[in-house]
Each structure stands twice: as structure tokens, then as C-alpha cells.
Amino acid sequence: MNLDEIAGIAHRPAGAPQGVVVLTHGAGGSRESPLLHQVCHEWARHGWLAVRYNLPYRRRRPTGPPSGSGDTDRAGIVEAIRLCRGLADGPLIAGGHSYGGRQTSMVVGAGQAAVNVLTLFCYPVHPPGKPQRPRTEHLPDITVPTVFTHATSDPFGTIAELRAAAALIPAPTQIVEITGARHDLDSKTLDVAGLAVAAALQLIRSQTA
After folding, report:
1. pLDDT tens for residues 47-58?
2. Which of 126, 171, 124 is nearest to 147 (CA)?
3. pLDDT tens, position by position, 153-173
4. With bands split at pLDDT 50, 70 and 90, how would you rate the model's confidence at 41?
5. What span, in angstroms and rounded, lies between the C-alpha atoms of 92 and 113?
6. Is the pLDDT of residue 114 over 80?
7. Are 190 and 178 in contact (CB under 8 A)?
8. Distance between CA atoms of 7 and 165, rounded to whole angstroms?
9. Radius of gyration of the chain from Cα atoms?
10. Complete DSSP assignment for the chain
11. 197, 43 Cβ separation under 8 angstroms
12. Is the separation of the CB atoms in 101 and 125 below 8 Å?
């Protein structure tokens, strides 16, 4: 199957995939972000097929923040999930970093794509310095287990604010705290990818137990 339609790159496991992971980037980023590289590599190491892909705004131009309508980016997420669903049997996990994770969660909350687990990295609970403008209105519509991997020094939301946001989801959630990191989740002391993947695997196993 051709991933060029979504500007996607696949990380393939050694054997038959146990499932598929579909991840995208934050505002201003791309599929080449170090975080996406690390997380997709970790999923492949655990036997999953992991795809990192560019959102539509990034396919239009190589740098800069999101442009145009968020609806277009969400349509691109629906397309990516649909395309990757055909790559392997098993569960499908979707998500992304910051803007990409938020848009994916909106797609899932609106019922536009079926996934087994959401994995959200540094979910932007609110714009930096503006807690009065929460980005949480759709979270009660999410009915799938969700992992939040969040930095303790993230200007887009404190751990306490994230916990309050996660509590709005009427499904199991896990919060992975990355102590000392900021919005890029870069850490010299913690295995961010390993912790995030382990939490998602635990939620998958709880579904099938």
C-alpha cells in the first residue's frame, strides 16, 4: 500500500505485525520530529507496524505553523487512519504530538475514525499562558482508552490541568509524567518512548483481558 498519499514513513517489525500505530506531528513540526522517530522505532521493536506521517498543511509547505482550516487536517487524519488500517490485522492506535494529537482526538471524539487506543503526547490543554481558554470541550465524547504522555514543565498545561482534562474522558486513561521536560518531551533521564508505549500496551491488554 502506498503511503505517499499521506507522506507517511513506516517502521516495520521483524515479524508479522501485532497491530498498527499511526502518529503525526505538532504545529510547526513534521514526520521527521525526533519524538516520532523514537516512538515509532519503539513500537516496531515491540512487534507493531508504526507509521509517522505529515498533516495536510505540512504536505503543502515544508515549514511554518498550521495554515488553512483545521477541518482539512482532520480529514487528513481520517485518511491516514483509513489507509493504515489496511496495512495489518490487529488493533489500531492513533495519536500524535501536541496539535496533531489534539486534532486526532477530535476526529475520534466525533466518531470519524475508529481506533482502539489514543496516544497523545503533550496534549495542549490550553494555549501558553491562557488557561482560561481550555481545549477540552470534545474530551467527553472520546470513548476509547487514552494515554497522555506529558512533560511536567509544559507551558500548554500543568500536570494538574492535564489530570482534570483526562478525567473528562469516560474511558480508561493513563498519564505518563516526564519530569523536567518541556513541550518537545526531550529528556536526558527518562525513556519517553518506552514509557509511552508500555502504557498504551497496558491499555490494549486490559481491553482483551
Report:
1. 999 999 999 999
2. 171
3. 999 999 999 999 999 999 999
4. very high
5. 11
6. yes
7. yes
8. 31
9. 15
10. --GGGGTEEEE--SSS-S-EEEEE--TT--TT-HHHHHHHHHHHHTT-EEEEE--HHHHH-SSSS--S-HHHHHHHHHHHHHHHHTT-SS-EEEEEETHHHHHHHHHHHTTSS--SEEEEES--SSSTT-TTS-S-TTGGG--S-EEEEEETT-TT--HHHHHHHHTTSSS-EEEEEETT--TT---SSS-HHHHHHHHHHHHHHHHH-
11. yes
12. no
**Cell numbers placing 65:** 505553523
Contact in structure between 83 and 49 (CB atoms under 8 Å):
no
**What's the CA gap between 93 and 22, in Å, rounded?**
6
Residue count (the chain):
209
Q: Domains in the chain, start-ordered, CATH in brackets? A: 4-206 (3.40.50.1820)
Q: What is the largest CA-CA distance in the chain?
A: 48
The residue to which cell 473528562 is assigned? 168
